Amino acid sequence: MFDYYGLPNDFPVYNNTSGTCYQKVEAAEKAFSADIGNQKFIPYIQLHEFEGLLFSSPKAIATTLGHGSASILAFIQQIRNAFKTPEEINQGADTHPSRRILNLFPSYNKPVFGSLIAQRTGLQVIRDNCPHFNNWVTKLLS
Question: Virtual CA dihedral for 91, 93, 96, 98, nearest 10 degrees?
């Protein structure tokens, strides 16, 4: 899993396509696959970054990091509701998903808390809320 947000400028097709954020990331995956040249390789580039997936369940974020505070849950839900899907949460260097979490919870540690939030959310909820991620999992399952 690579974060589209942090790809180097020399990544295949990076910033060379127009269209929606989904079309851009899919073009980068196709170019990456062509560059590897193995039909068994099924690339996945996370639109923006991993933490976007975590916004599939604001409750899991609030429960894991904010001890279930209703005000924190409401704020996280407000962030989530501002975007069509959790994968689309971004807007810039200070507003990408992990920065939003760090602004609320300065002790956020991706390997520890990210995996706990994802586990509490569950794969099906993430798939239901994140179409690009769901398409990749569907390819893996087929």
Answer: -170
